[in-house]
Write a structure and sequence with these properties.
Helix content is about 15%, strand content about 50%. By secondary structure, it is mainly beta. The strands form eight sheets. The chain has a four-stranded antiparallel sheet, with no helix packed on it. A four-stranded antiparallel sheet has the order 2-3-4-5, with no helix packed on it. Strands 6-7-8-9 form a four-stranded antiparallel sheet, with no helix packed on it. The longest helix is centred in the first third of the chain and has 33 residues, at about 20-55. It starts with a helix and ends with a strand.
């Protein structure tokens, strides 16, 4: 018996067969897994490069949603579509053109602002404020003085700048219309509040003040914190101030909860404001921009080229102030849409789309009169607002 077993082992060895087949199978499995992972990685790289270099020469209209438009209407991008408003009321339509909610009011000069789920409508030079969310009216209330500016946070906190006879007031209300903050300002002490911005949580605020009482123009930025940090500062919760000299600051904006952009006539300054303000980046320029824009990753501007009517220079930067790209644009436009992945320039009858590397994705005529554009949330799909219809288009 012992001799027989030995002969069997010798025969197996002569045939070149392994006496440990299980280890061989495990080794082969590892090779297959590595090969599959390599194929997937190469496929992902190919897909990214394909999307990055992909261009389009036409588009298709996926859906058309018709509506009746009475009187002069204005638009603001909201969620997956827009809100349309006039002196008589406001309506929210979803991407399918369906009316989700509608509210009537009477305003002489309506101003609407949007932040995530909330919409605030205020009557400039009047006293009425209406707050809406995705389901409709949340609250409406009356202010003690005439409204000259309004802002809303992503949490439904409403800030209004009010104009009295000899001073201005800044009031903050929560979504139940409960007064949270009152700040009194005067021309002599603070200047006139030119613009206002609220953080997403409604706890921080930035105000651009302009003062023309002394020789020339003086502009200041005031940073407020209504949380625990601001409680330790002063009664107004002022946690920082920046003197901007003669540079006008017509627009300030929170691009996320802790980052503020100050758009001046000769520079753009980015501030980090987790608690108190600190300068993060500064972009200086010689010519006042025709347009500025920002999202959570990028900021940019468009300036007119000298002696070239209808020609512009587009520059895009990251939030550290590093230039991403610049390019010339030969196109008259009525709107800029800074989406997450693409930048849209809309003309009255044409559309330009490029990514944030400066790659042109599409440029061409629409074939209808356009009034506004919205990124649909799907890559290379947009909603173009027409005179009596919304057109959902897809590049191809």
């Amino acid at each position: 018996m012992k001799t027989k077993n030995t002969n069997q082992e010798e025969i197996i060895l002569l045939r070149g067969e392994s006496t440990q087949p299980k280890k061989r199978k495990k080794g082969a499995g590892k090779v297959l897994i590595l090969l599959a992972a390599t194929v997937l990685l190469l496929g992902a790289i190919f897909f990214v490069l394909y999307q990055r270099n992909r261009t389009f020469d036409s588009f298709e209209v996926v859906n058309t949603y018709y509506f009746e438009e009475n009187g002069v209407m204005s638009y603001e991008t909201y969620l997956d579509n827009v809100v349309r408003y006039s002196k008589d009321g406001i309506t929210y339509m979803n991407a399918k053109g369906e009316v989700v909610w509608s509210s009537s009011y009477q305003m002489k000069m309506p101003k609407v602002c949007v932040n995530k789920e909330y919409v605030a409508a205020a009557d400039f030079n009047g006293n009425e404020v209406y707050l809406f969310d995705s389901e409709g009216l949340v609250k409406n209330f009356t202010t003690p003085y005439n409204i000259c500016n309004v802002e809303v946070s992503a949490k439904g906190v409403v800030a209004v700048v009010l104009e009295a006879d000899e001073e201005n007031y800044i009031y903050l209300y929560d979504k139940t219309a409960t007064e949270l903050v009152e700040i009194k300002t005067t021309i002599g002490k603070n200047g006139y509040p030119l613009d206002i911005a609220l953080s997403e949580d409604g706890i921080k605020m930035v105000v651009s003040y302009i003062n023309t009482e002394s020789m020339g123009i003086n502009t200041n930025l005031a940073f407020y914190n209504f949380g625990s940090v601001g409680q330790n500062e002063n009664s107004d919760r002022l946690v920082g101030a920046v003197k901007c000299g003669e540079s006008l600051v017509p627009e300030v904006k929170f691009i996320d909860n802790d980052t503020v952009c100050a758009f001046m006539d000769d520079q753009i300054v980015v501030y980090d404001m987790k608690d108190k303000p600190g300068e993060k980046a500064k972009i200086e320029f010689n010519h006042e921009p025709r347009s500025v824009f920002a999202n959570e990753k990028y900021i940019g501007m468009i300036t007119e080229l000298e002696n070239q009517t209808g020609s512009y220079q587009l520059k895009v930067y990251n939030l550290e102030g590093k230039e991403r790209f610049q390019t010339e644009i030969d196109m008259e436009y009525i709107q800029i849409v800074a989406g997450e992945e693409e930048l849209l320039l809309l003309g009255s009858n044409n559309l330009l789309v490029m990514d944030y590397r400066g790659n042109l994705k599409y440029q061409g005529e629409l074939g209808f009169i356009a009034k506004g554009a919205v990124c649909s949330g799907k890559r290379y799909e947009y909603i173009i607002l027409g005179e009596n219809a919304n057109y959902q288009i897809r590049l191809k």
